[in-house]
Amino acid sequence: MPDVVPSQAWVTSLNIANWPMPGPDGGMFAGGVAGNSGWELTVRDVARPGQRCAAEVVMYGSDGHPIADAYLISPHPASHTPAGDLAFIALGAQSPGAGVGFLQLGSPAAQAWVDPHRIGGFEISVPVLTVRACGQRYYLAGFAYPLAGTLDVFVAGNSTSPVHYLVPTRLSRPRVPRVWQGTG
């Protein structure tokens, strides 16, 4: 039996909006609205005694408080998919039916598109931004998306043809709200 295609009204009710948000310190790289709340993704340095500096992505709510535990990122990602390293989180009761994801690339790129297949023409387009942390450059794009559908992620490099990756639903539809799931 084929999956039921969510209606356009359902997608609209999720109130999803995405925009790049480069902050003054260069750490913020994405933000938007999902459901009734705002969200933003920021990279921060993590100083650990006796260890090298590490960078992690933190998701904040519109109240300025973290929504979930931070997600550690590598300065030299292994690119576990053709579209880079990916991480996803379900927002839970804050915004039922919506999630937030981000991708990390090993080199600069221009644009990322996320197409949640079979959801009424809904497509997400966000720039890949360069963010500095721990003296390193990170190439990141963040987005909110509906938890229904199958995500197809496309990334266009600055001089290469776009690549795409069909994200397994076990990854893009996290079962536990507010816990990151990733490929890295």
Describe this structure in words.
The structure is a single chain. By secondary structure, the chain is mainly beta. The protein has one domain. It is built from two helices and 14 strands, in the order H-E-E-E-E-E-E-E-E-E-E-E-E-E-H-E. It has a five-stranded antiparallel beta sheet with strand order 1-2-3-4-5, with no helix packed on it. Strand 6 and strand 7 form a beta hairpin. The mean pLDDT is 86.
Distance between the termini: 33 Å
Q: Number of helical runs?
A: 2
- Sketch the topology as an H/E string, one letter per element: HEEEEEEEEEEEEEHE
Q: Helix- and strand-based class?
A: mainly beta
Helical fraction: under 10%
Q: Biggest sheet, open or closed, and with what strands and sense?
A: 5 strands, antiparallel
Work out the number of β strands. 14
State Rg: 16 Å
Give the mean pLDDT: 86
Q: How many structural domains does the protein architecture include?
A: 1
Q: Which stretches are low in confidence, meaning pLDDT under 50 for 5 or more residues running?
A: none
- Based on CA inertia axes, which overall geometry fits? globular
